[in-house]
């Protein structure tokens, strides 16, 4: 295409001169709330009015298309910008461009075009299970933070480490979540993510034809790897599936991962999921820093290591991780619903560790990334003093997640040479496109493309793309269609098989969805007061970071960690 490489060759400053009604970089709205700030690169020529949110204008055959809307790139926002995609599904130009004459034109005026969302951690074979797991009649009662704080029964629904809820240790309520690896179940669980605009999921498995599964060689859906090296997803990197007593003064676990795991594209283990010394010992032992010189563990901290959860860390741990340029995956809803706490995310942020956002699984986490972003945003505004901007939260499900999974050379950004994984989102009237994405509901997902091919979207738009897709009916007040040809299944077939499984979408914030309000029995209920404005149970006069939620934890001898840089 004649625009190939344009933005990479000319740069932003040159392209600014090619656009109409240009605003200077940085001249966009900058409200006092930094979460709403964004950078406008340029306003391009007005787009034609359309009858639908996106309208396809047919053109001569030849492959490729140009999609127009408000394009989110690393540098900022192209208002009325375009993304030209070739027949191979690769981005050839971005910015104020005209479409090559032999390609389709898709106009989405005022709609937001983001890289397809990336979920860096899930369990796709378990997401048919509803919140709380099976056989949990007191889940709804103990999902209420007020009850968690005041009722001793609900203390048994908040845990200190992972194996307490896995096995019902120490009198705790076991979370029952059986695996179902049938293809029709896994496809339904993947479709749940497609409905939310997600195109890649590291989910410990997968099925053919929908999202990219970066941890399964046969299910990469076009991602390129060298020597068959994919993401090495380890749920039990210490081998403690049955030996669940834990360790605090040794790294002699049943089967500790070896340095060979770093030969993979990325090492993606569950580490430090909890708030006690047992959970903290996992971090020490997988960074070669165990307290026992005779059993120090193995140093698996590297630039291609990404720790899932990483809740049980202190400042020294995070500094060590930053020095090795590793990443961490944050799942706030799941952490808060299980432990009443989450990773010290501002500490990770201050140290400069790359942070991705992910759902974990439906028994304790979010149904999809839209709801996970809303949980993170709520926690950020209520308990972190708006430490993260809307743009930074958005990057946690795009560029940061791509880096965490080792595929930032192919996905995670709208950039020349990358795959055209694109999601179009309705704006919703928010002051920034990032907040529109964060606050989006399932009905606001207009179009989802993987390498330029449609997967899902508004029925009128999908029909115009003429890819042999099928209608799904109403999804949260919007008529949608899905493209399942690659799966060899039909939507009716999937719907029938999963009739008794967890819903495909939540059309509102459901009270039964795991709570994002932190609470632990007789310690804190997450309610701010004039004496404790961050709701962490430590009075402001005694709190080392009174604006940032950082309760005392068992692993720290019930003292606070400095999460705000006060020294």
TrEMBL record:
Residues 304-436 form the Amidohydrolase-related domain. Residues 1-20 form the signal peptide. InterPro entries: Amidohydro-rel, Metal-dep_hydrolase_composite, Metal_Hydrolase, MTA/SAH_deaminase, TSP_type-3_rpt. SUPFAM superfamilies: Composite domain of metallo-dependent hydrolases, Metallo-dependent hydrolases. Keywords: Hydrolase, Signal. Pfam families: Amidohydro_1. GO terms for molecular function: calcium ion binding; hydrolase activity, acting on carbon-nitrogen (but not peptide) bonds. PANTHER family: AMIDOHYDROLASE-RELATED DOMAIN-CONTAINING PROTEIN, AMINOHYDROLASE SSNA-RELATED. Belongs to the metallo-dependent hydrolases superfamily. ATZ/TRZ family. This is Amidohydrolase family protein. It comes from Chitinimonas arctica.
């Amino acid at each position: 295409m004649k625009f190939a490489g344009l933005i990479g060759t000319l740069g932003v400053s040159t392209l600014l001169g090619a656009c109409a009604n240009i605003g200077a970089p940085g001249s966009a709205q900058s409200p006092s709330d930094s979460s709403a700030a964004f950078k406008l690169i340029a306003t391009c020529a007005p787009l034609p009015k359309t009858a639908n949110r996106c309208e396809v204008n047919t053109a001569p055959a030849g492959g490729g298309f140009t999609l127009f809307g408000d394009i989110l790139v690393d540098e900022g926002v192209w208002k009325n910008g375009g993304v030209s995609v070739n027949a191979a599904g690769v981005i050839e130009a971005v910015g104020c461009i005209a479409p090559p004459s032999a390609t389709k034109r898709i106009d989405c005026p005022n709609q937001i075009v983001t890289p397809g969302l990336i979920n860096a951690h899930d369990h796709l074979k378990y997401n048919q299970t509803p919140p709380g797991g099976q056989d949990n009649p007191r889940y709804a009662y103990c999902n209420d933070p007020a009850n968690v704080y005041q009722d001793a029964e609900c203390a048994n629904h908040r845990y200190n480490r992972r194996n307490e809820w896995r096995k019902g240790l120490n009198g705790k309520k076991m979370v029952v979540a059986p695996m179902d690896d049938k293809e029709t179940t896994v496809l339904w669980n993947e479709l749940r993510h497609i409905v939310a605009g997600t195109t890649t999921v590291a989910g410990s498995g997968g099925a053919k034809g929908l999202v990219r599964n970066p941890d399964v060689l046969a299910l990469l859906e076009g991602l390129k790897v060298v020597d068959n090296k994919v993401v090495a997803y380890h749920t039990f990197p210490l081998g403690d599936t049955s030996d669940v007593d834990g360790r605090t003064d040794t790294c002699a676990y049943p089967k500790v991962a070896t340095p060979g795991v770093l030969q993979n594209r990325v090492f993606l283990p569950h580490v430090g999921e909890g708030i006690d010394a047992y959970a903290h010992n996992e971090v020490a032992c997988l960074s070669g820093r165990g307290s026992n010189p005779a059993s120090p563990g193995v140093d698996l901290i590297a630039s291609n290591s990404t720790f899932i959860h990483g809740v049980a860390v202190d400042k020294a741990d995070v500094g060590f991780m930053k020095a090795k340029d590793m990443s961490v995956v944050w799942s706030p809803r799941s952490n808060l619903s299980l432990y009443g706490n989450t990773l010290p995310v501002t500490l990770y942020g201050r140290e400069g560790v790359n942070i991705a956002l992910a759902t974990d699984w439906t028994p304790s986490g979010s149904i999809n990334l839209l709801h996970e972003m809303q949980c993170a945003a709520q926690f950020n505004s209520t308990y972190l003093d708006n430490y993260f901007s809307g743009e930074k939260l958005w990057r946690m499900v795009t560029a940061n997640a791509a880096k965490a999974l080792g595929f930032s050379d192919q996905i995670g950004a709208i950039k020349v040479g990358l795959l055209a994984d694109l999601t179009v989102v309705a704006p919703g009237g928010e002051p920034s496109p990032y907040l529109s994405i964060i606050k989006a509901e399932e009905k606001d997902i207009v179009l989802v493309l993987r390498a330029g091919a449609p997967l899902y979207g508004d029925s009128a738009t999908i029909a115009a793309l003429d890819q042999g897709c099928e209608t799904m009916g109403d999804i949260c007040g919007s008529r949608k269609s899905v493209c399942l040809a690659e799966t060899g299944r039909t939507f009716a077939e999937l719907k029938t098989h999963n009739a008794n499984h967890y819903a495909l979408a939540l059309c509102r914030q459901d009270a039964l969805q795991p709570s994002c309000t932190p609470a632990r029995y007789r310690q804190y209920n997450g309610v701010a007061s004039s004496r404790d404005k961050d709701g962490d149970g430590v009075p402001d006069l005694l709190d080392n970071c009174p604006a940032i939620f950082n309760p005392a934890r068992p692993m720290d001898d019930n003292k606070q960690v400095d999460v705000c840089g006060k020294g």
